[in-house]
Specification:
Order of helices and strands: HEHHEHH
Number of strands: 2
Radius of gyration: 12 Å
CATH topology: Arc Repressor Mutant, subunit A
Strand content: under 5%
Number of helices: 5
Mean pLDDT: 94
CATH class: Mainly Alpha
Low-confidence stretches: none
Shape: globular
Strand order of the largest sheet: 1-2
Length: 103
């Protein structure tokens, strides 16, 4: 049986370049309201290359934290075509990914 973190990482692998999700989106896809636990999973991501946790933002569009620093997270998101202004995703709905299935 997979751990909560592993379930979060499985979902993250579904998010394509140029799209983002919120901590709440991940929690809802896992049929829970454990938003902070999702944040903890992102903070403990052992493989930033394969599991793109830089694509997880706050529900307000603010980009939040990142293991390699906020500046790097902004760079990564911009390199994928996501518009960022004042450390916030512009027009979050435009870039928001919708999970097709949940656990």
């Amino acid at each position: 049986m997979k751990t909560f973190n592993e379930l979060c990482y499985d979902l993250l692998k579904q998010i394509p370049e140029g799209k983002v999700v919120t901590y709440g989106d991940i929690a809802h896809a896992l049929n829970c309201k454990a938003y902070q636990a999702v944040g903890n999973a992102m903070a403990n991501n052992p493989n930033l290359i394969i599991v793109p946790c830089h694509r997880v933002v706050k529900s307000t569009g603010e980009i939040g934290q990142y293991a390699l620093g906020v500046t790097r997270k902004v760079e990564l998101l911009k390199s994928e075509g996501i518009e960022i202004d004042q450390r916030k995703v512009k027009n979050l709905d435009k870039y928001r990914f919708q999970f097709l299935n949940s656990f």
